[in-house]
Design brief:
It contains 6 helices and 4 strands; from the N terminus they run αααββααββα. By secondary structure, it is mainly alpha-helical. It starts with 20 loop residues before the first helix and ends with a helix.
Length: about 200
């Protein structure tokens, strides 16, 4: 059954509330360091690219009405409560906002530039205009994303960091790992939305 009642938002935590403390601690101090140790920069982007294609394929399986239909999904690991009531179009918009932010920040970070801006979870929420051709926009962005990063990348292991509101200071390599994880989380969210739409 598709959820249609916007009052559902009143039962969700506010944007930026984050993950439950025990899940955040597990991700920050156990899962994330392990992945960063075993997954290289190239492998992280290979996984990112594969997840992007899965996301595009899922989005293209929907008609326009389904694409923009908001659905409440069950709690998912890595997804904050406020993000559970999205449409697939909203997820794509969020991924575009985050992707552009990473393209703007990872290369200068790798070149030693001190970035002063504070990234907030609220700033990357898709509560804004979503273009009718959002699937095509996401697909085009995904196809060029890696080349845009490579063209300007410096030292990925440099001891120059930018603060993430949940996971603390991270260097360029760590941001790449986080981008990979972020894509996996939202691909699983889209799968949950599609599953519910098809009931």
């Amino acid at each position: 059954m598709i959820e249609k009642d916007s009052s559902l938002l009143q039962n969700l935590q506010p944007a930026g509330a984050g993950l439950p403390p025990h899940k955040r601690l597990f991700a920050r101090y156990i899962m994330f360091p392990l992945l960063n140790s075993f997954i290289s920069w190239e492998i992280a982007w290979n996984i990112y690219d594969k997840e992007s294609q899965k996301i595009v394929d899922l989005a293209k399986s929907l008609d326009k009405k389904q694409l923009f239909q908001r659905v409440l999904v069950p709690p998912l690991f890595g997804l904050e409560d406020n993000s559970r009531y999205y449409s697939v179009a909203m997820v794509l918009k969020h991924l575009l906002i985050v992707g552009e932010a990473l393209v703007d920040r990872i290369p200068p970070l790798s070149q030693g530039e001190k970035l002063q801006d504070n990234i907030t979870i609220e700033a990357v929420k898709p509560y804004t205009h979503i273009e009718e051709d959002i699937v095509e926009r996401f697909e085009r962005f995904s196809q060029k994303y890696r080349d845009r990063l490579k063209a300007n990348i410096g030292d990925i292991h440099i001891k120059n960091t930018l603060e993430h509101p949940w996971f603390g200071p991270m260097n360029p390599k760590e941001w790449a790992i986080l981008a990979m994880i972020h894509h996996i989380v939202h691909r699983r969210q889209i799968e949950a939305i599609v599953k519910k739409l098809q009931r």
